[in-house]
């Protein structure tokens, strides 16, 4: 693939390919001298951790370069191995140096592959005992030295190949100390068993050791039966519920799989039925561990191969020439002549033998493995199907193929389709899928190439399509061209479609590679070389390039044109990914010149029903496709003569009105922004005589229970042409456009669109003071319009997305500006002063709030109305004062809190704007955004410092403050930020002038309002309230006593965190205002507040609280009594009041305990 691309002449693609070839393709092992130096330095560096790590990392970098071309290391493996083993064998080498040497050895082994590398390890008789001794000294659970154990186990595996009985190595079994020495065979078996039960890579090496050791003739006679019994016992007695058991099962299964892979059939056949029965009882396919399921499949296929005699199926399909060069050089006739394709195999040619019953179980388990949820299990099962089928008679093999084809049912999952593709590829590659079966197989593979199942918000099937490409690749190598010739059109078109239009880049590249293989091996694909040049491995990597450029080039070949268009229509314009839908419609636009008649007469009629269907994605893609195709037909008509243009126009004219209806209908559900701009023009063209029906449809849509229907209806009413609204204003219902949808807080988007539509409708009718309310904006209905818009200015709906009501407020501000300027220019006399005043106040409030975007929008609208001269907006309150604050030359960045708030706080000095401005500032000063809080509070306190010594100005400000507090007691959006703002004001002594008078009315009213929050359950609200109480302590008189009483009651609050917070705040309060209590008890009070454990239970903290009451001269809070009435009929108690002290004096006397009452509970 890389070399082929470098020879193309595809502009920049060839240059890119050349650079990739130069970068990736290595010529030889160029770092041999540096590697030799690194290996020689092991003696010097092993003692220093830093140098060891540096040397190891450098060696890793060198070796990893050859991961893709490990064969380049082969000429150098021997000297590298000898240098490392010299260190290992040296008696003077310390353990740290030995471990480092084995780590370097493992790195080489990992890159080259253990199967090749282990053959180079020395395996003479003299090596057995040293390796055994060294391995016996290792700690099996030391995670730092696992490479040493891994390589020693591989080395021991190679030493097991010595052609002498192991008992000859034992000599005298008595050691020098006189104790009996364990035989070598038993030592190796013990080591193998022990390492099969550990975690990590040494377990894999132990399974290799088992395969080499247990297949020795002397070991088979003495140990094979016992080892198999141990393995079966381990498997049957171990579950997969813990990591330890999973490792044990893994080791046992892996050892059996490798043993049956390398062992002789005659030695292992007698044990196979017992092992198969054990696996059936274990139910490994039901395990949650993918690796155990894979090993189970691997072992079962090896058992199946053991049951069947080793044979090469004589009925298999054999291709005459597998050389690509020979295939290209031979003519078609020669290729056919040299092909050996047995069509009929006589029964006499097959060897007669019985198929064991266990084989049926094996095949059943392998077919089940094809449907596993993990790829590694399915791939192992597919290979097992291929191996076992190759040893079956023709009839049984055909039954297996039929079972594999059952995986391609639409009732099966994507896992079954993927496993089926892998199995077919294996069968085809091995010649076990006879040409007679291709008529059944090819249609399934074509379906697999476009398999895409929607799951939730995405889809699955990319692995199926990738595997289908692998099937096509394997078929190209397996069959003669004449066998695949009937299916060339299907396979070629499907591969091209996948290579160009698949969403997954791996699938596109896999299809490109499969197409290239078919072009080279078969030579029958239409325009194969030309297509390969344009759609090579690298070109299909860019999705936009595939859809917009490559597809156009390939569609220029008539064999592929309609297939590509049909695929886009049926599979891609309704794709779940919006990017794919949009690219598909653009591709259809580009493909239209290739088949204009087909697009106009066939494709467009197919798209129209989809445009009004129920599938959202299908509607979106169909509408865009109609637009793109129609546009392309129009451009094509302009480029040709009038007759051609007329033909195309007439071909499309029949559908235009249907398109108009479709777009109007779809507008009710989705794509409002895209479609609304076209609706007005379409209505002017086609709806001259159907006004009532369409308007009624949209008015009814305003009452729908679906949010998108409401949005579409509102936008549609707003964009209708003026002649459709004339004399229908009452029918349209201006206030209904907002009020209908405002009843449901969840339909925020529909309220936003309705507010926008109000201004649009107003802009399309006459503005006249004495006009008819059914056809003009006049004095009779202007108040309704403003009432709806001003009401929307107070939309503070919130959901999981945040302050979504801001969308409505933003739209309301824009609509207010547009309607006001419209009325002011045409009939300013119909604007009531109260409405203008309310509008300017609401804009001032929004300009003081915390969200930068909406604050900026409100500020810009405010200044636009204030500075407007043509037309001039009448009745703006205190307009001269506003112009002094905001001159016409003002250049203000409302998005920047540092600029905006220093202007907006000046509105606090204007009585008409003070309330609303302060209300907006409340959520900014008490917010959580640091920059907003900083600059808004700084500007507010700058204003307050200017009036804090002037009682005449501060008293109205305090009254406004109390009014805001009173109006929003139950509104957490305002009340919590208000308490935070109030705490800052008290902390900055903004009301110091009120402290000169005992029991000032402002303080009393403020305390009464704050007391309402003492019963709240919101922690943040209670904490803010505590801070305000502590700030109110600065005011003298009875206020101070009442504040202390409230704080002391909070010391016994139900929530421990509130008790702790109250104690902490009181401690800080007494540090700040040390003159509020008697100095003689000050130290005792502060000590008790700081030392007591206020998180303890109420029974513990109440006496301490009462002690504080005595010291501070505050009456102890009285126990609260709950009153319940006893119902003698039902024998139950009914709660009359949750709190005795909450009863008013009149009802308190009448609720005295008496007959039918019971006193319960005693708590604060």
TrEMBL record:
GO CC terms of this entry: adherens junction; bicellular tight junction; centrosome; lateral plasma membrane
Pfam families, sorted: ARM_TBCD, ARM_TBCD_2nd, TFCD_C
Residue ranges of the TM segments: none
Compartments where located: Cell junction, Adherens junction; Cell junction, Tight junction; Cytoplasm, Cytoskeleton, Microtubule organizing center, Centrosome; Lateral cell membrane
Signal peptide residues on this chain, from the entry's feature table: none
Keywords: Cell junction, Cell membrane, Chaperone, Cytoplasm, Cytoskeleton, Membrane, Repeat, Tight junction
Domain spans labelled Tubulin-folding cofactor D C-terminal: 838-1021
First-listed, main subcellular location of the protein, grouped into a coarse class: other
InterPro entries: ARM-like (IPR011989), ARM-type_fold (IPR016024), ARM_TBCD_2nd (IPR058033), TBCD (IPR033162), TBCD_C (IPR022577)
GO biological process, alphabetically ordered: adherens junction assembly; bicellular tight junction assembly; microtubule cytoskeleton organization; negative regulation of microtubule polymerization; post-chaperonin tubulin folding pathway; tubulin complex assembly
Keyword Transmembrane helix: no
Record-annotated Tubulin-folding cofactor D ARM repeats domain positions: 292-529
GO molecular function: beta-tubulin binding; GTPase activator activity
Subunit structure: Found in a complex with at least ARL2, PPP2CB, PPP2R1A, PPP2R2A, PPP2R5E and TBCD. Interacts with PPP2CB. Part of a supercomplex made of cofactors A to E. Cofactors A and D function by capturing and stabilizing tubulin in a quasi-native conformation. Cofactor E binds to the cofactor D-tubulin complex; interaction with cofactor C then causes the release of tubulin polypeptides that are committed to the native state. Interacts with ARL2; interaction is enhanced with the GDP-bound form of ARL2. Does not interact with ARL3, ARL4A and ARL4D. Interacts with beta tubulin. Interacts with TBCE.
PANTHER family referenced in this protein's UniProt entry, alphabetically: BETA-TUBULIN COFACTOR D, TUBULIN-SPECIFIC CHAPERONE D
Its biological purpose: Tubulin-folding protein implicated in the first step of the tubulin folding pathway and required for tubulin complex assembly. Involved in the regulation of microtubule polymerization or depolymerization, it modulates microtubule dynamics by capturing GTP-bound beta-tubulin (TUBB). Its ability to interact with beta tubulin is regulated via its interaction with ARL2. Acts as a GTPase-activating protein (GAP) for ARL2. Induces microtubule disruption in absence of ARL2. Increases degradation of beta tubulin, when overexpressed in polarized cells.
The family this protein is said to belong to: Belongs to the TBCD family.
Protein name according to UniProt: Tubulin-specific chaperone D
């Amino acid at each position: 693939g890389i070399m082929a691309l470098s020879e193309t002449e595809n502009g920049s693609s060839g240059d890119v390919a050349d650079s990739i070839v130069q970068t990736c393709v290595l010529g030889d092992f160029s770092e041999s001298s540096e590697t030799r130096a690194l290996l020689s330095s092991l003696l010097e560096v092993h003692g220093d951790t830093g140098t060891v790590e540096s040397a190891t990392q450098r060696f890793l970098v060198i070796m990893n370069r050859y991961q893709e071309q490990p064969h380049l290391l082969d000429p150098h493996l021997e000297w590298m191995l000898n240098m490392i083993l010299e260190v290992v064998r040296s008696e003077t080498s310390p353990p740290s140096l030995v471990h480092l040497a084995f780590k370097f050895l493992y790195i080489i082994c990992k890159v080259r592959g253990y199967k090749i590398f282990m053959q180079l390890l020395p395996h003479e008789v003299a090596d057995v005992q040293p390796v055994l001794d060294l391995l016996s000294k290792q700690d099996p659970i030391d995670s730092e030295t696992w490479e040493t154990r891994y390589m020693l186990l591989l080395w021991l595996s190679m030493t097991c190949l010595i052609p002498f009985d192991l008992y000859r190595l034992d000599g005298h079994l008595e050691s020098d100390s006189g104790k009996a020495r364990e035989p070598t065979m038993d030592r190796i078996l013990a080591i193998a068993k022990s390492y099969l039960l550990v975690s990590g890579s040494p377990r894999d090496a132990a399974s290799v050791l088992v395969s080499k050791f247990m297949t020795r003739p002397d070991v088979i006679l003495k140990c094979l039966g016992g080892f198999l019994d141990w393995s079966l016992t381990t498997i049957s007695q171990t579950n997969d519920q813990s990591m330890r058991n999973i490792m044990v099962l893994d080791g046992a299964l892996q050892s059996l799989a490798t043993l049956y892979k390398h062992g002789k059939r005659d030695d292992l056949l007698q044990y196979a039925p017992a092992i198969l029965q054990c696996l059936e009882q274990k139910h490994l396919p039901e395990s949650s561990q993918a690796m155990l399921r894979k090993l189970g499949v691997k072992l079962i296929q090896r058992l199946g191969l053991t049951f069947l005699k080793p044979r090469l199926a004589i009925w298999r399909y054999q291709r005459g020439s597998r050389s690509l060069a020979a295939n290209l050089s031979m003519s078609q006739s020669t290729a056919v002549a040299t092909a050996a394709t047995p069509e009929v195999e006589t029964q006499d040619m097959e060897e007669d033998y019985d198929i064991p019953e266990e084989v049926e179980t094996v095949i059943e388990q392998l077919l089940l493995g094809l449907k596993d949820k993990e790829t590694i299990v399915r791939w192992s099962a597919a290979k097992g199907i291929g191996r076992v089928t190759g040893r079956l008679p023709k009839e049984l093999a055909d039954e297996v193929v039929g079972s594999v084809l059952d995986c391609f049912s639409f009732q099966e999952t994507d896992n079954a389709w993927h496993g089926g593709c892998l199995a077919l590829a294996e069968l085809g590659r091995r010649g076990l899928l006879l040409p007679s079966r291709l008529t059944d197989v090819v249609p399934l593979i074509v379906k697999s190439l476009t398999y895409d199942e929607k799951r939730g918000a995405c889809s699955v099937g990319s692995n199926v399509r990738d595997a289908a490409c692998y099937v096509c690749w394997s078929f190209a190598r397996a069959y003669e061209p004449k066998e695949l010739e009937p299916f060339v059109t299907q396979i070629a078109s499907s591969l091209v479609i996948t290579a160009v239009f698949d969403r997954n880049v791996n699938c596109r590249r896999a299809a490109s590679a499969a197409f290239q293989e078919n072009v080279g091996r078969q030579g029958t694909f239409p325009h194969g070389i030309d297509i390969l040049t344009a759609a090579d491995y690298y070109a299909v990597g860019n999705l936009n390039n595939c859809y917009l450029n490559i597809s156009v080039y390939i569609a220029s070949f008539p064999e592929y044109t309609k297939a590509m268009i049909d695929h886009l229509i049926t599979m891609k314009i309704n794709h779940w990914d919006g990017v794919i839908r949009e690219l598909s419609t653009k591709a259809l636009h580009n493909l239209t010149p290739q088949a204009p008649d087909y697009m106009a007469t066939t494709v467009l009629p197919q798209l129209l029903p989809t445009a009004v269907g129920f599938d959202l994605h299908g509607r979106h893609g169909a509408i865009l496709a109609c637009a793109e195709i129609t546009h392309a037909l129009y451009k094509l008509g302009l480029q040709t003569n009038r007759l051609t243009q007329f033909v195309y126009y007439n071909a499309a004219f029949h559908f235009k009105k249907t398109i108009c209806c479709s777009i109007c209908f779809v507008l009710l559900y989705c794509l409002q922004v895209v479609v609304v701009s076209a609706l007005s023009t379409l209505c002017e063209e086609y709806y001259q005589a159907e006004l009532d029906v369409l308007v009624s449809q949209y008015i009814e849509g305003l009452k729908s229970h679906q949010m998108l229907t409401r949005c579409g209806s509102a936008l549609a009413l707003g964009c209708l042409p003026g002649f459709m609204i004339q004399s229908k204003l009452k029918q349209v219902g201006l206030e209904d456009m907002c009020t209908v949808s405002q009843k449901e807080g969840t339909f925020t988007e529909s309220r936003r669109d309705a507010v926008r539509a109000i201004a649009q409708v107003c802009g399309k009718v006459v503005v006249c003071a004495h006009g008819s309310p059914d056809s003009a904006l006049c004095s009779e209905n202007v108040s309704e319009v403003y009432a709806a818009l001003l009401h929307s200015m107070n939309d503070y709906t919130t959901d999981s997305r945040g302050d979504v009501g801001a969308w409505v407020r933003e739209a309301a501000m824009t609509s207010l500006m547009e309607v006001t300027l419209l009325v002011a220019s045409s009939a300013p006399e119909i604007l009531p002063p109260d409405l203008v005043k309310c509008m300017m106040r609401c804009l001032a409030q929004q300009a003081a709030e915390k969200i930068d975007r909406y604050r900026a929008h409100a500020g810009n609208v405010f200044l636009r109305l204030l500075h407007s001269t043509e037309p001039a907006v009448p009745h703006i309150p205190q307009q001269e004062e506003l112009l002094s604050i905001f001159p016409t030359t003002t250049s203000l960045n409302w998005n920047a809190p540092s600029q905006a708030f220093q202007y907006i706080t000046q509105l606090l000095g204007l009585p008409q704007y003070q309330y609303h401005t302060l209300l907006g500032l409340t959520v900014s000063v008490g917010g959580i955004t640091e920059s907003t809080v900083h600059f808004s509070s700084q500007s507010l306190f700058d204003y307050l410092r200017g009036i804090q010594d002037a009682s005449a100005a501060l008293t109205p400000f305090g009254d406004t403050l109390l009014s805001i507090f009173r109006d929003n007691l139950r509104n957490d959006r305002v009340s919590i930020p208000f308490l935070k703002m109030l705490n800052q004001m008290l902390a900055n002594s903004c009301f110091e002038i009120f402290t000169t008078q005992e029991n000032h009315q402002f303080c009393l009213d403020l305390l009464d309002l704050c007391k309402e929050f003492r019963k709240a359950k919101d922690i943040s609200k209670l904490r803010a309230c505590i801070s305000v109480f502590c700030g109110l302590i600065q005011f003298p008189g009875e206020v101070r006593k009442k504040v202390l009483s409230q704080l002391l009651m909070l010391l016994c609050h139900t929530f421990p965190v509130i008790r702790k917070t109250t104690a902490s705040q009181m401690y800080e309060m007494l540090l700040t205002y040390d003159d509020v209590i008697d100095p003689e008890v000050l130290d005792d009070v502060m000590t008790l507040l700081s030392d007591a454990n206020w998180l303890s239970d109420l029974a513990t903290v109440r006496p301490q609280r009462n002690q504080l009451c005595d010291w501070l001269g505050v009456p102890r809070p009285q126990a609260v009594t709950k009153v319940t009435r006893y119902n003698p009929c039902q024998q139950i108690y009914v709660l009359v009041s949750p709190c005795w002290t909450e009863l008013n004096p009149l009802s308190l006397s009448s609720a005295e305990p008496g007959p039918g009452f019971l006193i319960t509970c005693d708590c604060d």
